[in-house]
Each structure stands twice: as structure tokens, then as C-alpha cells.
Amino acid sequence: MIPALVLGVLLAVACVLFVARPFLLDPEARNDRLDEPSELERRQIELLERRDRALAALKELEFDHRTGKISDEDYRELVGPLRREAADALRALEPRARSSRAAKPDREEQDADRTA
Description:
The protein is mainly α. The protein has a domain at 37-116. It has helices at 2-24, 39-66, 72-93, 95-103, 107-115. 1% of the residues are buried.
């Protein structure tokens, strides 16, 4: 009975050590560092953060308006700039938007040219 118990304990310890081995070994030092983001990646992160802030502000503004914390007049005044900010960030994130913008001028620029 005792040899079977000792064998069972040794087998359990061996299994635990086998499973824990990857966590007990030191990782290689070169894997501990993150690569610095490139300029393009930094710009994309900034645009994503800008989009997220604008969308969160729109969501909060909509909630405050629905709960009556913000009047209709204040809501109309605040919602436009927030929507433009979110739309600008979304447009800047679209890869094809950059190429199409380079090929043709913006609608606002066209309208300004017509009125001039």
C-alpha cells in the first residue's frame, strides 16, 4: 500500500512539474521587449483614439439628451462638431479615402470654388 502511495505522489509531482515547466523557465531577454511602433502605426493609433473619444462623447451626449440632462438646443449645438470629429477620424482611417482624396478635391473645396 505504501509503495503505491509513494508512486502516486511521485507521479503527481512529475505531472505538476511537467505542466509548470514553461512558467518556471526564464524567457529569452530579446522576447521581453516590445518593438517601437513606426510613424504610420503611431498615426493610426492616434486616429483610433480620436475616433473612440468622439464616439464615446457622442454616446454620452445622446444618453444625457435622452435622460433630459441636456436640452434640445444644447444637444443640437453640441452634436454637430462631435459628429464631424468622428467622421473625420473615420475618413482618415479608411485606406481608400486617402487615395481618392488625392485624386479629387473635397466637396467643400468644390463648393468654395463654385461660389468664388
